[in-house]
Amino acid sequence: MSEARYGEWIVVRKDAETHIAELVLDRPKAMNAVSSEVAARLADACTALAADRNVRVTVLTSSNDRAFCVGADLKERNSLSDAELGRHRPTARAAYTGVLDLPMPTIAAVHGFALGGGFELALSCDLIVADPTAVVGLPEVSVGVIPGGGGTQLLPRRVGAARAAELIFSARRVEAAEARELGLVDHLVGVGQDREEAFALAARIAGNSPVGLRAAKRALRTGWGMDLWAGLEIEDAAWRTVAFSDDRTEGVAAFNEKRKPQWPGE
């Protein structure tokens, strides 16, 4: 297990044997509020993770027992002039798009509060595992802004346009059971088991072809919002990436030889 720290509040742990990385929000005293520094370092960590071909799955977690992430650091925001806020905007966008653009499958392990930008970080992942303490929502309009970390685009892709509009316009918080019912989270597990279950899911995913995983994610994400035929062209391009890869050769051979694949990852 290797560990790297990006600034004071972002940690990346990698397990070379399981091929799973853990991206940890580690600002517990502030309930992982996303300051400009946190955003910058999160973007740096995502850049490094995206370049690591040995990582097959990334799990986004929190070191705080009470919260996944409470969103933007409003204390910092209160001290910024309009000009300063504008200058910080590209850094904030880089953090959220950094998570969204990770090329491997990503899983958020959510407990406690995941509000505003915190919920947007979870929405930027492919899958969300939550425990019964989770409270999610996009309350930005209640403080005079709108979701700016992808929420207006990611939430309707999860739950549909009308339901996303109701949740964003009302700024209401949604507790875990309803969040699961609405499709805001994918798995609801026992109290305190969100991280454990997220890693169990990550392990199941990581056993598959790394080339296949990245190509499948690329097809899924790139095809969002496109018509069927455009999406099928994207799928075909992703299929060709895998079909002529060493992973495909090994996968077919392992199936016929009734053994576990040893993925080349090329």
UniProtKB/TrEMBL annotation:
InterPro entries: ClpP/crotonase-like_dom_sf (IPR029045), Enoyl-CoA_hyd/isom_CS (IPR018376), Enoyl-CoA_hydra/iso (IPR001753), Enoyl-CoA_hydra_C (IPR014748). Keywords: Lipid metabolism, Lyase. Its EC number is 4.2.1.17. GO terms for biological process: fatty acid beta-oxidation. The keyword Transmembrane does not apply. Coiled coil: none annotated. It catalyses: a 4-saturated-(3S)-3-hydroxyacyl-CoA = a (3E)-enoyl-CoA + H2O; a (3S)-3-hydroxyacyl-CoA = a (2E)-enoyl-CoA + H2O. It is an enzyme of class 4 (lyase). The keyword Lipid metabolism applies. GO terms for molecular function: enoyl-CoA hydratase activity. Belongs to the enoyl-CoA hydratase/isomerase family. This is enoyl-CoA hydratase.
